[in-house]
Structures are given as C-alpha cells and as structure tokens.
Amino acid sequence: METELGSLGMIRVLIVDDEKQLVEAFKKQLTADGMEVITASCAKEALATIKKKTFDVGVLDIKLPDLNGVELLLKLKQLEPHLEVIMLTGFASVDTAIRSMKLGAYDYLTKPCKISELHKVITKAYEKKTLEEKTIVLKEHLHRLGPPDDFIGESKPIKEVKKLIAIVAASNVPALILGETGTGKELAARAIHNLSPRAGNPFVAINASALQETILESELFGYKKGAFTGAQDNKLGLLEIAHNGTLFVDEVGDMGQGIQAKLLRVLETGAFIKLGDTKETRVDVRFIFATNKELPQEVAAGRFRKDFFFRVNAFTIQLPPLRMKQEDIPLLADHFLEKFSRGGKKKRLAPGTLEVLAAYEWPGNVRELANVLERSMLLSGPRKEIRLEDFPEELLAGACQIKKGKKSKSSETVLNLTRLEEEYIEKVLSAVGGNKTKAARLLGITRATLYSKIR
Ligand SMILES: Nc1ncnc2c1ncn2[C@@H]1O[C@H](COP(=O)(O)OP(=O)(O)OP(=O)(O)O)[C@@H](O)[C@H]1O
Ligand SMILES: [Mg+2]
Fold first, then answer.
1. What DSSP assignment string belongs to 21-70?
2. 181 lines ligand 1 (CB under 6 A)
3. φ, ψ for residue 288 (rounded to 5)?
4. 183, 328, 371: which to mutate for ligand 1, most atoms within 8 A of CB?
5. pTM across the whole model
6. How much distance in Å is there from the Cα of 344 to the middle of ligand 2?
7. For a tag on the chain, would you pick the N or C end, based on fewer CB atoms within 10 A?
C-alpha cells in the first residue's frame, strides 16, 4: 500500500551554499540516494524557501554572500525549531563552526568534504530529529509504556476472556473491551496487540476523556505546519505513529462526535486529511476501543454516533468484575506480592487473610486489590507476613458482614449462638490486631459491651 508515511520517511534537505557546482553535485547524488533536496544560494533565498516548505535537515555554508551562516542558523531555527543543521566550513573558520554547535547546529563538516560523508551526517541528524519528534508525542503516554503485566487468572470467566483475546488477536477486526474500572481493560488491549501479527510494531494508547476535543484531534491526526497559529511545525499524529501497529482508544464513550466521524472514516478507508493538509494520509492501524459507558444508551441519548457505534462494536469482550472471579484472588495476590517485592524477599499472606480478600466486594477490582496489597506490604514493615491488621478498615468491615451473613445461612445454624458470637468476636479482634476500640466499632457495639463479652 502506498502511504503518506513513505514520504515521511524521505529526508527533506535544504542546502544553502553559493558554490553552484558543488551544490549541484551534492543535490544530484543525494537525490539519487533517495533524499528530497532543495538548494538556495543565499540566506535570503533560504529563508523564503523554508517559509513555504518543511525541511528535516539544513546544510549551511558558513560564508554566504548576504549573511553569516551562524546568523542564518539562528534565523532558521526560529522559523523551524526542529530543523537539524549541519555547517559547512573551510579550515579557516573551524572555530566558528564549533561555536555554531553551541548555538544549536547538529554537526559540522570541513570543506572539501566527501558526499558520502555528508550523506552519513544528514542521515544521523535526521534520525535524531525523528526520534525527538516521537519522544515528544510518546512522552505523554509514557506511563503506559512499561512492560505489561501478564494476564493472570484461571477462573471460568477469565478463561473465556483469554479465549476471545486469542481469537480477535489473529484478525484485524476492531475490538471493543468493556468492563468496570480496574478490571484490566488496558491490559487486555495490550494482550491482543502482543498476540497479534502486529506485535513487533507500535502499540499506542490514547485516553479520549482526558483530553480536550481540539487537542485530542491534533494528537490523533496530527497537523501540517501553519495549519493554525502556533502550528510551527508538522506534527505527527498517533495514527501515523501506530502505523502497522495498534491504536488503543480508551474511554471511547467520551469522544466528541466530530472526532467520531473522522475516526469512522479511518476505520472504513484507512485514510484521513490532517488539519492544514490538502492530500490524504493513509495508515494501516488496528483499533482497540475500551469504555465503561453503556454505548447503546449513549447512542439512544444522541451522544454517540450510531454508524460509529456499529464499527466500534464489531467484536466485544466483557471483562468480569473481580467479585465474579473470586477464585482468581489467590493467584492475583501472589502475582502482586511478587511484583511489589521488586526482587527482594517476597512476603507471605498470614492465615485468614485470603478469606478476607475473597469476601470483599472490590468496587475498584484488580487495581484496588493491587493497591491494597502494596499498601499492606508497606504497613507490615519488617514482618515476613502480611496480617489482617495491615489491611484497610473497609476490607475488614466488608468481610465481617459477609461472614456473619454466610454463617447464619449455613448448615451450622444449629451451632450454639453464644459459641458463634465468641468465634466472631475472636475473629474481629485478631483482624484488628487486638485493638478493642476498632473491634467494637466494627462489631457495632460499645467498648464497654465488648469488654463485658470478652470477660
Ligand atoms: N487479570 C489480571 N492480571 C494481572 N494484572 C491485572 C489483571 N487485571 C488487571 N490487572 C492490573 O490491574 C490494574 C488495572 O488494570 P487496567 O488499567 O487494565 O484496568 P482498566 O479496566 O483499564 O481500568 P479503568 O477503567 O479504570 O481505566 C493494572 O495494573 C493491571 O495490570
Ligand atoms: Mg483503563
């Protein structure tokens, strides 16, 4: 497929030198090498050219008829901050060349120089420039770039999810991942990418609810230099960065309808027009969407485009909440204890703690479980095991209520009530490390009553 990325890969070079013959020779060879070369014989011409066209690398002679090369360097950098500049100098002005590097030039070459040498330096300068551009865009997504967690779980609902992930990974169909907060939607998206044939190419994530509409649009699609005031340079969009890879659009339910329409077209044709551009840009991107909104309701309310919904909703994976896959809790807990011990000695869970973890409702799902374990690990200090007293109060309270409910419904109802109460009070007391004030609060009785019962 012929893509606009092909031309993005072509290095655009501006050579400014008044030695006509030399410049022509450079141009001929570098063009033959696949670069796009435009020449100017003086500073004035160079400045006029760069106002009309974007360049990646500038090659400037230090001695120009109308301006010193170093001054031209500064002017060019002002107009195009990301331009990398190589200075050409005679032996006499090597000092000036070195000074120019302090002022932002990438490198210098002394004349006469070989074309092959010039080619090498231009390529290096270009690599630096593209790397910087990518870093700028990716910085915003840096927190997402760590190595992904393995997808842990052997429960039936998670096995089902893993099966669907494997199926959809093999295709190019857009995937839609649904689920409460913290259920692992982003993790699932990464898993799809990693299992797909695109695994060696970029996985790029963007959160549609975190960004204002206009910023989201320029992040996704990029823009051309001069598209609006402040557009000083071409901006690569995430769609281009994700070319041949996967774009994960998180919180798609919060995306504005204008962008929905533009993205729908990308889904259907792989093409879009950037702000300030006249021609189409084509990309080959696999889409994964996620949301915890009810999209059909959003469509009914007129907030989500119906045509876009049908595209987004092509293959749905529903992630179960943690309370529906309690049997995975020991595996997950073990995984997080290992992860948070960061190579140090792994802590154990004291007897009784797993039951409390299993009994809790987990409104924040796996993320909350991870946070609870990390915090408890810290609170456990030098101890080798994590005890109930290291857990947050809401966990203990929730667990106590459930235990109370379960016991009374179980076959043990014949159990002597006094014995049951004793057992229960013991449990709560040990849960809070013997703290009677806390225990009384959890039990919903006064401290005095608790004391009398203990007696
Ligand atoms: N099955 C799992 N195995 C291992 N780690 C998991 C699992 N599910 C979730 N996690 C971890 O839990 C945390 C939250 O997961 P993730 O960010 O994917 O949730 P999310 O559904 O995208 O949440 P939100 O809707 O709040 O964005 C992450 O640290 C993730 O690695
Ligand atoms: Mg998420």
1. HHHHHHHHHHHHTT-EEEEESSHHHHHHHHHHS--SEEEEESB-SSSBHH
2. yes
3. -125, 130
4. 183
5. 0.63
6. 29
7. C
- Whether the CB-CB separation of 247 and 239 falls below 8 Å is answered with yes
Handedness of CA 123, 125, 131, 137 (dihedral sign): negative
- Ligand 1 center to residue 318 CA distance, Å? 13
Q: In angstroms, what is the span from residue 290 Cα to ligand 2's centroid? A: 8
Residue whose Cα lies nearest atom 29 of ligand 1: it is: 367
Q: Is 297's C-beta closer than 6 angstroms to any atom of ligand 1?
A: no
189: tokens are 């998206």
Residue with token string 């309370």? 323
Note the maximum CA span of the chain: 106
- Which has more pLDDT, 8 or 411? 8
Q: Which domains does the chain have, with CATH numbers?
A: 4-139 (3.40.50.2300), 144-318 (3.40.50.300), 325-454 (1.10.8.60)
How far from 133 is each of 77, 222, 250, 274, CA to CA, in Å? 15, 12, 23, 17
Spatial separation of the C-alpha atoms in residues 428 and 430, rounded to whole Å: 5
Protein residue with its CA nearest to atom 6 in ligand 1: 184
More confident residue, 30 or 90: 30
pLDDT of 90 reads 80
CA of 221 to the centre of ligand 1 (A): 27
Query: Is there an atom of ligand 1 within 6 Å of 367 CB?
Result: yes
Is the bond preceding 112 in cis, omega lying within 30 degrees of 0? Answer: yes
Helix (H) or strand (E) holding 330: helix 329-340
Check if 254 has its Cβ closer than 6 Å to any atom of ligand 1: no
Averaged pLDDT for residues 126-143: 66
Q: Where are the alpha helices (DSSP H) in 170-305?
A: 185-195, 213-221, 238-241, 257-269, 295-300
Query: pLDDT digits over 187-239, tens only?
Result: 999 999 999 999 888 899 999 987 788 889 989 999 988 887 777 788 889 99
Residue nearest to atom 28 of ligand 1 (CA): 367
Please name the amino acid found at residue 341: S
* Residue 161 CB contacts under 8 Å (≥ 6 apart), including other chains: 151, 153, 188, 317, 318, 319, 320
Work out whether the CA dihedral 429, 431, 434, 439 comes out positive or negative: negative
Measured from the CB, is residue 253 less than 6 Å from ligand 1? no
How far from the centroid of its chain's Cα atoms is residue 102's Cα?
34
Least confident of 18-27, 85-94, 296-305: 85-94
From the CA of 335, the nearest ligand is: 1
